[in-house]
Specification:
By secondary structure, the protein is an all-alpha fold. It has 5 helices and no strands. It is rod-shaped, with a radius of gyration of 27 Å.
Length: 136
C-alpha cells in the first residue's frame, strides 16, 4: 500500500515527466510549427509584398529624379518621365504602417493550447495549416 507521500511522489514524477516531454517536443518540433504558421500566413505575404513593392517604386522614383537632374534639357520635370509613380511614397508609408501593425492571427492557435496536454498539442501541430481569410 502506498503512503500519502509515495502517492504524491508518483504524481510529481508523472508531472515532471510530462514537462520534460513537453519541453523536448517544443524544442524539437514546436518551434518549427510556430515558424511554419508564421511563414504560411497570407497576411504576412501581403504585408511583405506591399513593403517590397513600395520600396522598389520609391527607389525607381529616386533614380528617375536623379536621371532627370542629369538630363534637364529633354524633359521639364521628373514626373514627366515614363515610369515615375507619384503615389509611390504614400504607398510606401502605408506599407510601412501595415508592417508595423502586422499581427499573425494564426499564432492564436498556439496560445490556445497553453493548458492542453502534449498529446493534443502534437495532434494539432500535425494538422494542415488552413489559410486565413483576409481582406486584400
Amino acid at each position: 500500500m502506498l503512503t500519502r507521500c509515495d502517492s504524491e511522489m508518483v504524481e510529481l514524477y508523472a508531472l515532471v515527466s510530462e514537462l520534460m516531454l513537453t519541453k523536448q517536443w517544443f524544442l524539437m518540433d514546436g518551434v518549427a510549427w510556430v515558424v511554419k504558421l508564421v511563414h504560411q500566413s497570407p497576411k504576412l505575404e501581403k504585408v511583405v509584398a506591399d513593403l517590397v513593392n513600395s520600396v522598389n517604386a520609391v527607389g525607381a522614383n529616386e533614380g528617375i529624379k536623379q536621371g532627370f537632374q542629369a538630363a534637364k534639357d529633354s524633359v521639364h520635370s521628373a514626373e514627366e518621365v515614363h515610369g515615375y509613380d507619384e503615389g509611390a511614397k504614400d504607398a510606401l508609408d502605408t506599407a510601412i504602417k501595415a508592417f508595423d501593425n502586422f499581427h499573425i492571427s494564426g499564432l492564436g492557435k498556439v496560445a490556445d493550447l497553453v493548458d492542453k496536454p502534449l498529446s493534443v498539442i502534437k495532434q494539432r501541430s500535425e494538422l494542415p495549416i488552413v489559410k486565413e481569410h483576409y481582406e486584400a
